[in-house]
Amino acid sequence: MDKKERSKKAAAVSAVVRSAPKPTHSGLMSTGVSCAVLPDGRRVVSMQGNNGLAETFGVSVGSKMPKWVPRGDAGQLPYVLQATELQPYITDELREAIAEPIVFKNTSGVGSAYGLDATLLPELCEVWLAAERDGALRQRHHLTTARKAEALYKALARVGAVALVDEATGYQKERERDELAKLLEQFIAKEMRPWVKTYPPEFFEELCRLRDVPFKANMRRPQYFGHLVNNITYDRMAPDLRAILKEERTKANKQGAKMHQFLSEGVGNEMLQKRFSGITTLMKACDSYDEFLTLLEKVHPVLKVPEAEDHDNAE
């Protein structure tokens, strides 16, 4: 890269930093990671610097390590995922999601922080846990980091990434009462979408294996599979989503209509497809359906509508 290109790149980074939003709330998670809530509602965790995830995980940041910066090189990764041993465990979807840091101003008003959407933390932790499980981590400091990733993963499993950030920053006390309604609105289509093949065959192949049901292409699946699929997917995407999709299907009064046809093309259907990919990976790692459900509950717990009297402080 010549001098002109370096100057152009530096100017692009400076522009991003200058326009970075200032968090409305900030704090430290119970695990010591710095986190914040941005004006648009995104929950983010700081990835580097004091109390960043790299420091919390004990990942040493050397001067020769590739930078993770705005408008950076294609395929760049945050420091916590740069170890060679981790690369086979990073999915293409995760690589794409973390390719660009979220830049926001430090609450002190001095400098900026590079962060990551907090909802990606479980997947990030899973990379370390999978590598450790397969015996790919041999260096002592990598094993130490894996244990710290497991501690964070367990904390996330208890309350979820968003709730953990809200608790740490105090944002949970100020959440709007209609936040859930706004969330659900993003998932529901304005009108029924045309039917397209939605469920990947590999998903059902793994589900059949875990339920000891012989799998055949184009097979007629057991009727109870519908309940299982609803629990595995819709019940874990948003509170009350399954009930609302059923209601929309009833209102449409179209014979043969499927619930997934009432998911919005963007947020709803896109999340469903991503879930299928991640859930199928979880299935492959399990030897029984009970083992799969236990793991699924940690990663994507069933989301319930909070009680009315506790709504302001709901997780």
UniProtKB/TrEMBL annotation:
Bacteriophage Mx8 p63 C-terminal domain ranges (all copies): 183-271
Highest taxon, organism lineage: Bacteria
Pfam families assigned: P63C (PF10546)
InterPro entries xrefs: Phage_Mx8_p63_C (IPR018874)
Protein name (record): P63C domain
Organism: Yersinia mollaretii
Species lineage: Bacteria, Pseudomonadati, Pseudomonadota, Gammaproteobacteria, Enterobacterales
